[in-house]
Specification:
This protein is 24% helix and 47% strand. The chain is α/β, with parallel strands linked by helices and 122 residues long. 25% of the residues are buried. This is SnoaL-like domain-containing protein.
Amino acid sequence: MKTEVMFHCGNAPKMERVIELTIALAKKDVNLVKSHVREDFVWKTVGEDDVILFEDLTQKLARRPTVTKLNVENALSHGNGAMCEGTLSFEDGSLLYFCNVVKFVNTAKDALVKEAHTYFVK
């Protein structure tokens, strides 16, 4: 998978972590995803009834379409929240715009993610 990430200062640990988590989800790298989230992690796709829990990550990620390119165009963080947005390209040539919004367990720079909400737009 080709990955392009916007230039940033590198001095915002939570912003970096939301980008890393988004890349891991796009790559379907379950071990890397699990290294960023708590065991009570919940991932919701906004507008769908599908809620993915920590214990379902392996199974649910395997069913997702293969991403060929991820482009992170913007990312922000503040307090215990962070987001990144960009585009996902797939093997069939389709493109989705996304915004991944995460909530960390606290404001520590190495805090784990407890919740993610992802928005997709065609």
